Structure to design on (319 residues):
């Protein structure tokens, strides 16, 4: 086993991804499947952003958060998918050391920001249902911008901390990563140096930027559901719940797959299971978010239909 050091050197050192290497005969099929998923993700989230910009009915705090969530999902999936798609055509699936750190940096920004942003969206739903008369004040434009900016700052600080610590690691060969992406726990497994500080910071981040938004969201929805159940009419309860059903579904999928991806017991080593879990978290979740909001939200469906109608009209006019 050859030892190699990776600090702030200019050597073009590479990592070799072992993800999907167990099934060499399925490379072309995997490429087509993941290309379709990636294009669907980018298209779906782009349509959500456009719809929230052009539709007067969607000029509310909830859809302001949704457009930011869609932008995050495009960034999130674009951090890993292009590299993965290119590697399907390579016999040796590699990424440079600098590329690996860059991937970790952007992955952590997007994942951390999304968790905090989902908590901010839960607060928005809590205010809308539990304090409707104070909603214009508590969720003013300035407050919404502060919440989104705060979400990005949380993700940025978390990402800078982990990436800076990862850059100080001395890594030992073989330079193989049992995955299709770079992540902090995977680099820690390759380290010959003391990783206690990295692990302590990782646990602290899991509690603050991981667990705290999840608990805040859970408490918010406990109060929301309690308030909905006190509404006297069945029609009123249904209408109130419909305003948060899409967000609740997205929250369950995001935090559920994130928890399973990072906090499941590490018993044995099953590459296929590791790949499947990460695909659910990093690939499928960004694709499902716009679909969930489109299927369960009348305002979004109406805006998308209007957008499609305007596009069709413009196409006919150009003809």
């Amino acid at each position: 086993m050859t030892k190699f050091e990776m600090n702030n050197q200019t050597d073009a050192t590479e990592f070799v991804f072992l993800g999907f290497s167990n099934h060499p005969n399925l490379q072309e099929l995997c490429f087509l499947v993941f290309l379709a998923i990636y294009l669907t993700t980018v298209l779906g989230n782009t349509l959500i952003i456009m719809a929230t910009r052009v539709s007067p009915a969607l000029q509310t705090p909830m859809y302001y958060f949704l457009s930011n969530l869609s932008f995050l999902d495009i960034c999130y999936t674009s951090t890993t998918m292009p590299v993965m798609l290119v590697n399907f055509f390579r016999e040796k699936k590699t990424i440079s050391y600098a590329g690996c750190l860059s991937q970790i940096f952007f992955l952590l920004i997007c994942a951390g920001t999304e968790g905090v942003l989902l908590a901010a969206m839960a607060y928005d739903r809590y205010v809308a249902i539990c304090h409707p008369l104070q909603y214009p004040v508590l969720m003013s434009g300035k407050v919404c911008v502060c919440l989104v900016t705060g979400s990005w700052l949380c993700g940025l600080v978390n990402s800078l901390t982990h990436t800076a610590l990862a850059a100080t690691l001395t890594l030992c060969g073989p330079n193989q990563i049992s995955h299709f992406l770079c992540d902090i726990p995977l680099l820690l497994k390759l380290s010959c140096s003391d990783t206690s500080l990295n692990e302590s910071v990782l646990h602290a981040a899991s509690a603050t930027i991981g667990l705290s938004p999840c608990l805040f969201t859970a408490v918010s929805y406990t109060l929301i559901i309690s308030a909905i159940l006190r509404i006297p009419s069945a029609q009123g309860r249904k209408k109130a719940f419909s305003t948060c059903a899409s967000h609740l579904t997205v929250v369950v999928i995001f935090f559920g797959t994130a928890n399973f991806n990072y906090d499941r017991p590490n018993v044995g080593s099953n590459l296929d299971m590791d790949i499947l879990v990460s695909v659910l978290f990093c690939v499928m979740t960004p694709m499902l978010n716009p679909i969930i909001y489109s299927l369960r939200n009348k305002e979004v469906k109406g805006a998308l239909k209007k957008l499609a109608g305007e596009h069709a009209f413009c196409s006919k006019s150009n003809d």
Q: What stands out?
A: The chain has one domain: 14-318. The first helix runs from residue 27 to 54. Confidence is low (pLDDT under 50) at residues 1-12.
